[in-house]
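Tokens in:
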């Protein structure tokens, strides 16, 4: 059984930093791509970042590029999302997801390639 569990600090002030973790069981992060998505109140879920199966490649949404960093810890089978210079517009429920499909960089921002999802964790950034 594959499970993904998100964890991280829930409330921060703007320009602060926080780190989200995604613990994966039932699949190895070393051979799967892991993505982070988020959904703000009243909005559609959107792509945030992904680290591909071959680990050396990361993909970011333009809105977080330069502020967020995604990384894998193969030993702990976790994927971390470091969020720096947080903004109120980063407030959302954050989800991690796992994909076994392999392809070009452009596919990793698509929700439909991910076959397992976590339950989500709330991140609130106050101004």
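Residues out:
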């Amino acid at each position: 059984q594959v499970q993904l569990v998100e964890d991280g600090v829930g409330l921060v002030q703007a320009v602060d930093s926080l780190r989200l973790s995604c613990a994966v069981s039932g699949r190895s992060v070393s051979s799967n791509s892991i993505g982070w998505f988020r959904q703000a109140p009243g909005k559609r879920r959107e792509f945030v970042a992904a680290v591909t199966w071959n680990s050396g490649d990361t993909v970011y949404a333009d809105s977080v590029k330069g502020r967020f960093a995604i990384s894998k810890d193969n030993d702990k089978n976790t994927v971390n999302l470091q969020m720096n210079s947080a903004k109120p517009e980063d407030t959302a429920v954050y989800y991690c997801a796992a994909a076994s499909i392999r392809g070009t960089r452009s596919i990793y921002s698509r929700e439909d390639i991910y076959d397992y999802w976590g339950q989500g964790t709330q991140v609130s950034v106050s101004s």
